[in-house]
């Protein structure tokens, strides 16, 4: 039998793509998800166990039933605006849920966890590109919640020999090229699906949040990395832990920065359509530039992103033209 891996939040965007890659690598992904932000249709490569990360009784049942070799933890809120509007609820899930999950794993004899973190733990860039030694000074409760979990994991490694790999990824984007799964949030807050919706006439306009940043065209610059490249990194990180290697953190990005205006232009080229833009004031907590230095992941994990921006947009366009519209709550 293949090794079971508990994937908390595995019915969501990045989690489901990681389940695809886990299955291809010979593992059995056991999805643990409350389906508040995930989709049952995305669970295609292993069993689904419905439950919340803040439910220790349900977690104990699932650990006992499936006896996973390790945990990959995605289950968290990710909307920056929500983190600012409702920080208590945000910390309750992102930090409280992580603690409950870690303790449930330990009680079940599991001592390995791959954690879905974010470049938002760094805050404003001090140096560019940003490597793993960059100061961590998050700008918002979202980034702070992820940093808190990182700190908890460091303490768990030091004092309880609970081993983890933290993956700080930059901007996840794209979709499965075969169209089986893709990006779908309610409400949608990510730039690429919002711009595609505007290009397809499903939204009246695309909103630029700030045009006066100190960047080459005044808009924010981000490092877009394909979701399947991220999924590959999770499998490599899992194998790193299963091989008995030490706890550590890795950045995941391409090292290529794309401004929001450049992203819009690329989607307009793909769609052969121009769409209205509305410029409004900056959002709280948005850094001007976030670009990764991922040399550590390349050197130690052997991770090399395979997809570029054109691939990301091509795969996202195909998904939103076909698969995404079929999903209903």
Automatic annotation (TrEMBL):
Residues 5-253 form the NAD-dependent epimerase/dehydratase domain. Its cofactor is NAD(+). Its EC number is 5.1.3.2. One of its GO terms (biological process) is galactose catabolic process via UDP-galactose, Leloir pathway. It is an enzyme of class 5 (isomerase). Pfam families: Epimerase. It comes from the Bacteria. It catalyses: UDP-alpha-D-glucose = UDP-alpha-D-galactose. Belongs to the NAD(P)-dependent epimerase/dehydratase family. Homodimer. This is UDP-glucose 4-epimerase. It comes from Caulobacter flavus.
């Amino acid at each position: 039998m293949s090794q079971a891996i508990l994937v908390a939040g595995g019915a969501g965007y990045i989690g489901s793509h990681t389940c695809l890659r886990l299955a291809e690598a010979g593992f059995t992904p056991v999805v643990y998800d409350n389906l508040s932000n995930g989709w049952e249709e995305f669970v295609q490569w292993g069993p689904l166990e419905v439950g919340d990360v803040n439910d220790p009784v349900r977690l104990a049942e699932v650990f006992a039933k499936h006896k996973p070799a390790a945990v990959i933890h995605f289950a968290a809120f990710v909307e920056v605006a929500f983190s600012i509007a409702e920080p208590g609820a945000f910390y309750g899930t992102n930090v409280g849920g992580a603690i409950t999950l870690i303790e449930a794993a330990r009680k079940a004899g599991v001592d390995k966890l791959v954690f879905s973190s974010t470049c938002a733990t760094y805050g404003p860039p001090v140096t560019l590109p940003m490597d793993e030694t960059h100061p961590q000074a998050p700008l918002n409760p979202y980034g702070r919640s992820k940093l808190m979990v990182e700190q908890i994991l460091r303490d768990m490694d030091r004092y309880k020999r609970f081993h983890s790999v933290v993956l700080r990824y930059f901007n996840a984007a794209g979709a499965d090229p075969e169209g089986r799964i893709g990006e779908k949030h309610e409400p949608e807050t990510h730039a690429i699906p919002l711009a595609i919706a505007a290009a397809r006439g499903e939204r009246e306009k695309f909103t630029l949040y700030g045009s006066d940043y100190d960047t080459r065209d005044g808009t924010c610059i981000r490092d877009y990395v394909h979701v399947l490249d991220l999924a590959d990194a999770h499998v490599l990180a899992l194998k790193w832990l299963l091989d008995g290697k030490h706890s550590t953190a890795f950045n995941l990005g391409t090292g290529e920065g794309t401004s929001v205006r450049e992203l819009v232009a690329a989607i307009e080229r793909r769609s052969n359509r121009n769409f209205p833009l509305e410029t409004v004031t900056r959002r709280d907590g948005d850094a001007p530039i976030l670009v990764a230095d991922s040399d550590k992941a390349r050197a130690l994990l052997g991770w090399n992103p395979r997809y570029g921006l054109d691939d990301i947009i091509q795969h996202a366009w195909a998904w939103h033209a076909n698969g995404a519209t079929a999903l209903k709550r």
